[in-house]
Write a structure and sequence with these properties.
Radius of gyration: 21 Å
Helix content: 10-25%
Shape: globular
Strand content: 25-35%
Number of strands: 22
CATH architecture of the largest domain: 2-Layer Sandwich
Number of helices: 7
Structural class: alpha+beta
Oligomer: single chain
CATH topology of the largest domain: Uridine Diphospho-n-acetylenolpyruvylglucosamine Reductase, domain 3
CATH class of the largest domain: Alpha Beta
Largest sheet: 6 strands, antiparallel
Number of domains: 3
Distance between the termini: 32 Å
Length: about 375
């Protein structure tokens, strides 16, 4: 059932102007959207032989995302050490088995039909935490931090580290620079891959190095001048991110916590942080060279409070979709398609999803 809460101000739809049909959501942009041949799941258990970790077959995956909707993974492997992670990457690559990486599940929607291949669960303690390290201060380029006094500090952060915990733990240690990620859900690996951030800055500004494992099981470290960060994206090659070096500075824990509280208070006023959403659904688009608010465009199209099946557009911020009772991934995907089509019709702006959507038989 489709319900337009504030009335259809711009004509009735999903029928579009000119008789056009609602465009379908593109395949997972996280993996390029290439349609793959069916995967023989019977070979997957043997790929994990001798590895340290836990393998689950036909495992509910949607429940591990913030939206808690969607289907199952043919296989979910949670490695317990770096050797096992490298080996499963190598073995999957040699056998043509697609790999996907699951961190916090914050910016992810799993299609109702689930996903094939192996999903790597990075939530073992082996892939969490950070430590201070020694690193040349002039590596590649200066840090994009506020020009305040304070000793520069470099920390090596494991990819499975929760962002919210990282923000608070570094603040308690008197390390400033991560306040900009206050209220941003997810893990360090996903944040680096998509250059997470907001109005206060992006993580790419403080990244010094990123290390990942490719599909041959080899590790590669990229310094900041080898990675191009742009708005909600990076040009990092495919692979599993395992760690990143961040450049911070020393400051008073009280001062840092004060900034965190200020940012969180502002977000609570404008975003539905208490709801079960995946954060912003769409990227803010460029219009005539200026980045404009996707939420504002969606609001002007009259979508706040709109419901489709079990999915609804937040009444607080129009760029958030909230799953309710009985919601399916299909409900959310259809609502995304309708919003995109209507915004394009009204504003001649094509919205690109920030939300990552995993579908079966795409790599």
């Amino acid at each position: 059932m489709f319900t337009r809460r504030r009335g259809c101000r711009h004509g009735c739809w999903p029928r579009l102007a000119g008789g056009a049909s609602v465009p379908q959501e593109r395949e997972s942009r996280a993996s390029g959207g290439t349609v793959m041949a069916a995967v023989n799941t019977e070979t997957i258990p043997s790929l994990c032989d001798g590895l340290q970790g836990t393998l689950h077959l036909n495992h509910p995956l949607g429940a591990k995302t913030w939206m808690r909707v969607g289907g199952k993974a043919d296989a979910l492997f949670r490695p317990a050490d770096y050797h096992s992670l490298r080996e499963i990457c190598r073995r999957a690559g040699e056998n043509g088995i697609p790999l996907r990486t699951l961190g916090g599940g914050a910016n992810l929607l799993v299609a109702d039909e689930g996903v094939d291949g192996i999903v790597i669960d990075m939530n073992d303690a082996a892939f969490r935490g950070f430590q201070e390290i020694s690193l040349s201060e002039d590596i590649n380029a200066p840090l994009s931090l506020d020009p305040e006094t304070g000793e520069s500090v470099f920390i090596n952060v494991s990819a499975g580290t929760d962002l919210a915990k990282l923000v608070m733990d570094t603040a308690a240690a008197g390390l400033a620079g991560l306040e900009m990620l206050t209220g941003v859900p997810g893990t360090l690996g996903g944040a680096c891959r998509m250059n997470a951030g907001g109005k206060y800055g992006e993580i790419g500004n403080i990244v010094r190095e990123i290390t990942l494992i490719d599909m041959t099981g080899r590790e590669h470290t990229y310094t900041r001048n080898q990675v191009r960060f742009s708005y909600r994206s990076s040009d990092l090659p495919s692979g599993v991110i395992i760690s990143a070096v961040l450049g911070l500075r020393r400051d008073s824990p009280e001062e840092i916590h004060g900034r965190i509280k200020q940012i969180m208070a502002e977000k609570k006023q404008t975003q539905p942080l208490a709801d079960r959403s995946a954060g912003c659904v769409f990227k803010n688009p460029l219009v005539d060279g200026v980045r404009v608010s996707a939420g504002k465009l969606i609001d002007l199209a009259g979508f706040k409070g709109t419901e489709l099946g079990g999915a609804s557009v937040s009444g607080r911020h129009a760029n958030f979709i909230i799953p309710g009772p009985g919601c399916s991934a299909a409900d959310i995907i259809m609502l995304i398609n309708i919003i995109r089509a209507e915004v394009q019709r009204l504003h001649n702006v094509v919205l690109e999803t920030e939300l990552v959507i995993w579908k079966r038989n795409t790599a």
